[in-house]
Amino acid sequence: MHLPRTLPPRTLLSLSLPALFSTMASPSSSSSNATTYPSFRYHARHPSFPYAARDFQRQDESPDTDFYSAPRYVTHIDDHAISVLSEYYAHHLPPKGRVLDFCSSWVSHFPKELEARAVATARGKLSGEDEALEVVGMGINEKELAANPILKQRILRDLNEQPDIPAEVGTLDAATCVVSIDYLVHPREVLESLRARMKKGGMVHLVVSNRCFPTKAVGRWLRVGEQEKLLMVGDYLHWSGWREVEVVTVCDGKGEGGGWFGMGRPDPLWVVRGKNIDG
């Protein structure tokens, strides 16, 4: 099962981003890994946080706990997007330490090596700062979290009702959020509280696709194109105190090998990431 695209395929950006960001951002080559991705530095566009409460209104304002009450053991991006996201994580997530996967579910798309280390840690076979990779999963469905084998700790939390990251997550080295930032109605508050839990130099990786549950996505998300969605997430990060914000193209959506049975165009996928530069 895959979620519907937010726009018809012909309107999607293929996003090898030069034209997209030519007047707003400059190329960044901060990574020295063997696998590199087109990435552009975000620059603040507004003198203050530009969004009002109406921008976060949704078609379905019923409790999220009701909407997500039944577990969905499905993936919300295609297999090709999952593969390239795992590869991105292999290069950009820490191999040890403590990572929060918020808006988490039954699968986190970690690469095999990190997954094996996290599972071993969760099962008590690895411990200590030199070896362990502790993954904390925060989500809204208890059964989905229980089915995720990499999680050392599970926290049930509706971030739209309680828009903060609680102290029980501990001190974090990194955080991930996969195709869910578009559902948060208080993103600045959530990301501010996340930064307060993050070590100096720690990074958050917000994964963005062109698929969603449209009735639960915030209203502005549905009204704007892909370029503006990415800049919108950049605004979220900047105005919650994250710095060195970048937009990374993980998959440009070109070619074949995606969709159902690998016979269609792959889902485009981006990561909007930021760093906590405070101690």
- What strand line-up does the widest sheet have? 1-7-8-6-5-2-3-4
> Structural class of the helix and strand makeup?
alpha/beta
Looking at the chains present, what oligomeric state does this protein adopt?
single chain
Rg over CA atoms: 18 Å
As residue ranges, the low-confidence spans are 4-34
> Per DSSP, what share of the residues sits in E-state strands of 2 or more residues?
15-25%
How many helices?
Answer: 8
Mean pLDDT: 87
Order of helices and strands: HEHHEHEHEEHEHHEE
By DSSP, the count of extended strands is 8
Tell me about the largest β-sheet.
8 strands, mixed
Instruction: Give the termini distance in whole angstroms.
Output: 42 Å
Percentage of residues in helical conformation: 10-25%
Report on this model:
With 279 residues, the chain is an alpha/beta fold. 24% of the residues lie in helices and 20% in strands. It is built from eight helices and eight strands; from the N terminus they run αβααβαβαββαβααββ. It has an eight-stranded mixed sheet with strand order 1-7-8-6-5-2-3-4. Helix 4 (112-122) links the parallel strand 2 (97-102) and strand 3. Mean pLDDT is 87; it is low at 4-34.
